[in-house]
Amino acid sequence: VEEEGLGVAAAINWRGLGGLSLTAASGWPRPYCALCQNDVAQVISHVRRELPTSSLYAVGWSMGGNLLVRHLAESGDECLLRGALAVSPALDLAAIQRYMASTPVGRLYGRIIGFGMFSYFLKHRAALRDSPISLLATLRTALFGSFEGEVFAPLWGLDGGMEEYHAKCSFLASDVSRVKRRLLVVHAEDDPVVPLHSLPLAEMSTNPLIVVAITRHGGHMGYTAGLSPLQHTWTDRLLVHYLRHLRGQTAAPPAVAVLSRL
Fold it and tell me: Please, which residues have CB within 8 angstroms of residue 6's CB and are 6 or more apart in sequence?
């Protein structure tokens, strides 16, 4: 983005990630998960205060895409962003959980993600020592269970377990009409983590501000370009074109959204 002269990029280091400590003003700190949606609003509001005359855009990947799209819906007409891009967004968490549990690849990914989360809790064990979840419980969950219902829900004060977590943290068909800013969603048919059917595609096609681009290949955030991993990815180039379009867009939005298969 900066190389193309389109502005200055800023990134969110989520709670306890990017070298950050996990802290709280009182009680035990709440770890990073899909319940951190208010963090998005706080960061965007901070950037707006620092840059009051700048146009703001945002990009979210996977769970970050979930948090970003939900922010668009919850902020509605008051959203401070001019546009957004969501790549492989994990929108319907219940559908994703069922899908991952039903396939060998999904179960493998689940365990990989689980041990990644265990490493996170191991790193922040001192900060979470007074929480209702022990380190041994997180290891057991990494091996056999689900962090959503068994760890995140109680740490965030949800009594309804996984069902309440999914209900609070999903972007469903009923939420589509609440999006009032331009949104480009990029998703692959062969995504092994977030199945295409978990996106509310039919409803998205009725919102003139949402465009969905479906690729045949790309996996889960696996879009690349060329042989070298050091090169810009395909989605990097797509973002540059999308930002150029948004910055130069002066006409009214189209009457219908375009649901395209690339």
Answer: 240, 243, 244, 247
Quick one: pLDDT at residue 230?
Answer: 66
257 token code pair: 């959204």
Chain position carrying tokens 């950050």: 20
259-261 and 210-215 as β-strands: parallel, antiparallel, unpaired?
A: parallel
Mean pLDDT across 140-144: 93
Cα 205 from chain centre = 20
The packing angle between helices 93-102 and 104-123, to 10°, is 120
| Residue linked to tokens 């970003």 | 68
Q: What six digits make up the tokens of 85?
A: 């891009």
From residue 29, alpha-carbon distances to 21, 119, 127, 131, 164 in Å are 10, 16, 7, 8, 20
Closest CA to 190 of 85, 107, 83, 262: 262
What secondary structure letter does DSSP report for 23? -
- Crossing angle for the helix pair 37-50 and 63-75, nearest 10 degrees? 70
User: Is residue 138 within 8 Å of 124, Cβ to Cβ?
Assistant: no
User: Residues near 14 by Cβ (< 8 Å), separated by ≥ 6?
Assistant: 32, 36, 39
Dihedral over Cα of 243, 247, 250, 253: its sign:
positive
pLDDT tens for each residue of 38-56: 999 999 999 999 999 999 9
- 21 contacts 15 by C-beta, under 8 angstroms: no
d(CA 227, CA 74): 40
User: CB–CB of 47/177 below 8 Å?
Assistant: no
pLDDT of residue 255: 35
Look up the pTM and report it: 0.90
Dist CA 136 CA 151 (whole Å): 11
pLDDT in tens, 220-261: 998 876 666 666 788 888 999 999 999 885 344 443 334 444
